[in-house]
Structures are given as C-alpha cells and as structure tokens.
Amino acid sequence: MKHRIVILGAGYAGLLAAGRLGRRLHGDDVTVTLVNAEPDFVERVRLHQLAAGQHLPARPLVRILAGTGVALRVAHVTGVDVERRVVAVTATDGAGTEELSYDTLVHALGSAPADPGVPGVAEHADELASRPGALRLRERLAGLGAGGRVVVVGGGLTGIEAVTEIAEARPDLDVALAARGGLGDWLSDAGRRHLRRALVRLGVTVHERTDVAAVRAGAVETRDGAVLPADVTVWATGFATHPLAAAAGLEVTAQGRIVVDGTMRSVSHPDVYAVGDAAQAEGPLGNPLRMSCASGGPMAWQAADAIVARLTGGRLPHMPLGYVHQCISLGRRDAVIQLVTPDDRARSAAPGGRAAAWYKELICASAVFLAAHPAPVPVRRRRLVAAASPAVARP
Q1: Within the chain, which residue ranges are assigned CATH 3.50.50.60?
Q2: Residue 12 main-chain phi, psi, to 5 deg
C-alpha cells in the first residue's frame, strides 16, 4: 500500500512543500495530494497591487504541478480528524463532501484577517488577505470619483503597502493611514525617514497612535472621539490562523498556530507537519517566526526534507530559519529594504528608492519561481525504506 501524503493549502508554503515532496519521492511508493480552495496559485504578497487596479497573470495550479506527480483537489477543507487520520473536504463545484485518508498530513492553510471585535468592520470594511477580498476592494476603488476618501487601518507591512499602492495608482483620491502605534516604529531611523518621505510624496495623511473604535458607512471613528471620513475603509490590522487546527485537537498557541519542532512536525501528533502562517516555529535565538512569505518558504523546505528523510532513511535537515531583511514596497517605483538580524531586529541600514523597488520585485518574482520550482535542479526520486510503510511510519 502506498504511503499517502495530503497537503492542505496551496499558498507559498503548501505549494512548495507539495512540489518538493512530489519531485523527491518515488511515485510507486507514495501518493501526494494537494487540496486547495482555488484552482490558481494566488500571489498573496501582490494582492495590494490587484486591489489598486493592476493585472496579475493567472497561475493555474495544474500547470505548476505538471510533472511532479502531485494530484490537485480543488475543494474546501471542512474538518481534520487526527485520530482516524482523515480530512473532510467539500468540492467547490457543489459535488458534495468526502474524506481523504492520510498517513502524513501537511497543514498549510495559512491565515485570514483577524477578527478585531471592532463594531462595523465586517459590514463596512474591505480586506486584502484573500483574492476575493482584493477584487471586491478593486471594484469599490474603481467606483470612486475624484476626491473620494480612503482610510487604510493598520500600520504594519500590509497597511503600508496597501496605502502607498492606492495613493500612487489613484492620486485623485484623498488617502489616509491610521496606525495604532508610531509609523514604522519597528524600522531603523533610516527606514522610518524613508517611509515618511514616501508617504509625504504620495500625499498620504498619517494618523499615528490612533486606535479605531468603530467603522460605519462613510467614516472611521477613533477612541479619542475623532471621525475620519471614509468612502472606503481598508482593514489591515493583522491575521488569524485557520480554526481547524485547534478544533482537531492539535497543540496550538494562544493565537491558534500549530506548535512544531525543528523539523516542522507537530509536537502533539507526529503524523502532522505544519508550515507557513499555520505553524509556530522558532528562529535561531528562540524567537517566534512571524507570519510571512520569508518564513513560509524555509519552513516548507524543512518539512518536506524531513518527511523525505524519515520515509527513506535519510538524514534529517538542519536548515537555519533566520531573517536577512524586510522588503516593503511603496508603490511601483519606490521601496525600503530594512536589513535585520537573524532574529528579525532592525539593523541601521535601510536602503530605499528605485533600486530597492527593483529588488523587492525580484524577491516577489523569486517567491513565485521557488513555489513553482521547489527542486530547481534535477533530483533523484527516492524509494521508501521497508520500515516506512503506512502502518509504522509514525515515529
């Protein structure tokens, strides 16, 4: 009987893990199934560009997975039973619900906008964490005439990239950013200076240390009683993990992220691995890795290579999971590259400008390339060792 590997989610981490497993394990010994709610790969780091009216090419998963041996199932994941080792999925075309059995599961369902508990957000704010959300925001922005007012709530990477992209694409709009803390307060002095200059150049009004109390049609209300007029409100204050992990009984953090060891294997259920935003892994100094593409890629490589090693009797990988920089786009012609320590603390250097924008574009393109080519050079597909049969491959 073949060893059954099921991967949930085809974001950067899930797609990379699936492709690497498919290319490194022999098809006579394993089946690799990738479950995703959409038929296309979504470049999540570019959704602010999509919302601002730019065209992003379609990237069908069947084309990306061609030749890997990975089977694609376009369906919603509705449940995970870690005791029976089955995943419940519902076909997106309404064909019904079924169960997929697994011997090894890779949980890569990622994250969604966090529920802030702020009145009016669900009814009156748009989000950028999903392709449908970005498309809805795109339509709303396209319907605004000159002088329309846009408020982006959230001073993190998503909020900054969204507000600068919108302001550059639509200079006829009145665009503002509301940040709970100081603008770019995690950046170095050089990084903050460049960020402020960019926002001034783009005409963005910045409301720092502003805590939003409610969102209503036509306005954002702050806790200090101020009212920010808003024909469109973009909510970009953070992300939350998929609730299925906690519901399945996996050990998770208070934020719902699956607790994993250094090989990305669940500390409570050794048949389950987790990568990307779904997992809580540690960096080189014990620091928790942040939700980001920069974390998801190395985590996926680590998990895939660990699964291959355990199934084929190879050596477990020991890839350091550290950081080099944070790349923040500020429209299409500007960016800031904040250099950081391996545990993600800002260094003094933060180059910016057109060269930085070119570099950020290279990083985004590389992320897509690596997701589609997880083994960029030919590799030998390995056979499973006898002890790695489904019945006993659960150490």
Answers
A1: 115-235
A2: -55, -50
